[in-house]
Design brief:
Helix content: 10-25%
Strand content: 25-35%
Strand order of the largest sheet: 10-9-13-12-11-15
Radius of gyration: 18 Å
Number of strands: 15
Largest sheet: 6 strands, mixed
Shape: globular
Structural class: alpha+beta
Order of helices and strands: EEEEEEEHEHHEHHEEEHEEE
């Protein structure tokens, strides 16, 4: 779902506190699923409540909460797909995170659909990711104990968004398409590309009272093509450009080395 913009976050080893603590289970195909499989999830909004539940606004404007008895039926009706909200479970409950049935028998085409690639486009080089992570994700929808795709944080620069807006004047380039944990104002310097965060891979930085480790560039998938609202509709050209001109990557994945608090205006400093 589309989340909320806030001016201060706490980060732990498991990502942003309060982020991705609920998820939808696909009751038709099994497994915890996101908007890669159920596109209308990207047209729902969520907001964290003080009690750890979330308020959900559907595409039609109907509002429910994860604590409401009718939440599953409201969300299923809005999505046109039977789902059930489930709170995050500990890593020891590995069955909770096990992958559901694929849509297709052909695993290559299944990957192409998830990444939104047409026939003449490459899928990301998954061999570049840590082997133990890829072994885990072959069996589980997300690393057990978490609901994030691969890493607990994904950061982008404001400059990447500006670059995409300039390159795609006929597209609605909106930061919400890319769902970053944190957005950094990082003017390119010393010959950096227009996507400065890609040069951060392999480096460690402090931001606020937290320390984070930039691990690998983020290959974009079909999520960036999904409609969000009337002003940000389905748009395959955004992904076509990222694959064709940006080597498939926008944003960078990161791990948290030292938990802490990050607030709007904090400076990111490499160490």
């Amino acid at each position: 779902m589309i989340g909320e913009q806030i001016d201060s976050i706490d980060v732990t080893g498991n990502g942003v506190a309060g982020d991705r603590i609920w998820a939808t289970r696909d009751l038709e195909r099994g497994g915890i699923r996101g908007a890669k499989k159920i596109p209308l999830l990207m047209q729902c909004e969520s907001r964290l409540l003080d009690d750890g539940h979330v308020e959900i606004t559907t595409p039609t404007g109907e509002v429910t909460t994860s604590s409401a008895a009718e939440a599953n039926s409201v969300l299923s009706d809005a999505l046109g797909h039977s789902v059930e909200l489930e709170a995050l479970r500990p890593a020891s409950d590995s069955e909770h995170f096990r992958r559901g049935a694929p849509d297709l028998d052909d695993p290559v085409q299944e990957l192409r659909n998830l990444f939104g690639r047409v026939d003449d486009e490459p899928i990301p080089n998954l061999g570049a990711f840590p082997r133990d992570l890829m072994v885990t994700l072959a069996e589980y929808e997300s690393p057990p104990g978490s609901y994030y795709d691969m890493f607990p944080l994904m950061l982008m620069s404001e400059q990447s968004i500006s670059h995409l807006k300039d390159a795609l004047p006929d597209s609605a380039v909106d930061v919400r398409r890319f769902r970053p944990s944190i957005v950094i104002d990082a003017p390119p310097a010393n010959g950096d590309t227009a996507l400065p965060e890609l040069s951060w891979v392999g480096r460690t930085a402090t931001v606020g009272s937290a320390t984070i480790d930039f691990v690998i560039a983020c290959p974009r998938c079909v999520m960036v093509t999904r409609a969000i609202d009337d002003s940000v509709g389905d748009d395959r050209e955004v992904l076509r450009y990222v694959v064709r001109e940006l080597n498939q990557d926008v944003g960078v994945y990161a791990n948290i080395i030292e938990p802490g608090t990050i607030s709007e205006g904090d400076e990111l400093t490499f160490i």
